[in-house]
Amino acid sequence: MRLFPRRARPAVDGAGRAGWSTVVNYARTQLLVATIDAVGIGVGAFMLGVPLAAPVGVLVFLGSFVPIVGAVVTGAVAVFLALVYNGWWIALWMLVVVLGVQQLEGHVLEPLLMGSAVKVHPLAVVLVVAGGAMIAGIPGALFAVPLAAFLNVTAVYLSRRGWRAGGDFEAADLIWSTVPRTRKGSA
């Protein structure tokens, strides 16, 4: 904090704390979503008799941290293993399990859990992941969403002068809000 002028220190401190809180929420939520993905696909592979079900679950857990492409690639590995070791019929059922888990993640878990945790719109997530991947490859894709969430929260904190108000801001105040805003004057 000593790098900043005395008058700016409360603003920088508050913005940093608000941003860090968002990054912590992102990490916790991502761990929960990755665990649900891994358990769902791992248990599905085990129930279908696919060999290496536990390593597939671990691979899905790790792949879930790479936005957008991680779940697709690790799900494809699970289907490929089912195809090689168990044949077309089991591979088809493994595909159903993988798609079911990914639909649950994409349409229920991500919007409800991740949207409230990082307060970043899904379209913004896609754009920042693509930009991060273009700039820095896989590490860029990994860190794009938490960085965007951090910048979103700190920018709003600073623009709303949160250190003077002494309180948090509402989710509707965020630049990339996940919940559509209601217009003033409308019911």
Low-confidence stretches: 175-181
Using the alpha-carbon principal axes, give the shape: elongated
The assigned structural class equals mainly alpha
- Rg from alpha-carbon coordinates: 20 Å
Query: Strand content of the residues, in percent?
Result: under 5%
Query: For the residues shown, what is the average pLDDT?
Result: 82
Distance between the termini: 44 Å
Helical content class: over 70%
What does the main sheet amount to? none
Helix-strand sequence: HHHHHH
As for the number of domains, it is 1
Question: How many β-strand stretches?
Answer: 0
Our count of helices gives: 6
Structural notes for this entry:
The protein is an all-alpha fold and 187 residues long. The chain has one domain (6-173). Helices cover 75% and strands 0% of the residues. It has six helices and no strands. The chain has helices at 9-47, 53-63, 69-86, 88-118, 122-159, 162-165. Helix 1 (9-47) packs antiparallel against helix 5 and helix 2 runs antiparallel to helix 3. The protein is elongated. The model is unreliable at 175-181 (pLDDT under 50).
Question: Can you describe this structure in just a few lines?
Answer:
This protein is an all-alpha fold.
Features:
single chain, 187 residues
Blueprint of the fold:
Elements: H1 9-47, H2 53-63, H3 69-86, H4 88-118, H5 122-159, H6 162-165
